[in-house]
Specification:
mainly alpha, about 85% helix, single chain
Length: about 120
Amino acid sequence: MSKHHYDHIRANEKFHELVVQKSRLSWSLVALMMFVYYSFILVIAFFPELLGQPLAANSTLTWGLPVGIGIILFTFFITGVYVYKANNLYDSLMQRVIDASHEHVNSLQQEKEDSST
């Protein structure tokens, strides 16, 4: 792509909207993941007996194991949310921005050719 493409993309209102939406989703998911992870760490630090309790009366497994697995599964889930949004929403929006840029640059080149003849 040429400098004209990049300039047109940077000036495109839909591109700015896309950046805002993508950033908002990214930071929301980061904040959510940090909340879950640091909550787990704080529980381990200040209330270890909660996660150290057995799952059942004669069980050797404690609540820490399913909670830890839950955090890992939660991470996969929010990653899936991001990938789904990126593939189904953000990619199509970006393709529209790129197509508009190509149209704009092609029309500029056509005008340039028409004016030179």
